[in-house]
Write a structure and sequence with these properties.
Layout (H helix, E strand, L loop, with lengths): L13 H12 L3 H8 L3 H10 L2 E4 L4 E4 L4
Antiparallel strand pairs: 1-2
Length: about 70
């Protein structure tokens, strides 16, 4: 899986790719970012930009809750 183009990746595909990687290979999103040489802040920014948040307690990105 190549996440180096996460900033331009289809926002419908990105959450599934990240969650699959987190479930299968990584203990945290930070671990995923470090392993792939990704800018942590840019990755979090992109995740937030497409309407998701990272939930460390379940190690997933999830759609942002509307309050």
């Amino acid at each position: 899986m190549n996440l180096s183009h996460f900033q331009t990746m289809d926002p419908n595909l990105l959450p599934g790719l990240i969650n699959t990687a987190l479930r299968n290979d990584f203990e945290s999103l930070e671990d995923l970012a470090k392993t792939h040489g990704l800018d942590w802040e840019a990755l979090i920014g992109r995740i937030n930009e497409i309407g998701y948040d990272y939930w460390a307690d379940i190690n997933q990105i999830r759609p942002r809750r509307v309050q």
